[in-house]
Design goal:
Blueprint: H1 2-21, H2 27-55, H3 61-78, H4 84-119
Length: about 120
Amino acid sequence: MFMNVADYNAKLIRSSLKTSFSGGVRASDLSQQRKQSQINVDFIWKNLFQRMQSISRDCKAEVRRSLIQTLENIIINYGQIICMDVWGMLLHKILLSMVKHSSDMFNRSCSRSQVVDASE
């Protein structure tokens, strides 16, 4: 589902780029149209990545693994068209949060295994 949203968003970006190069449109109208479509596209990217972040806290490793693969595919396929503002949010709020959460889960599992080993 996340890839479908990313595909749709990329399609919006590409169609707005095609429109910007077509003739017969006043520059001021084109600028306003591009600004409005960029706001919508950025909102969709941010919302998509925030939804992915909420799923990244799932306790099932298979869910987290498939999420990481999907995120990797999105970055590989569409990273060049994601604006800097969204990249900043993606890196700081999403990826670093995922790494921190995974690290916390690993530390908790190590702590539990040490407690079990000590009691035996």
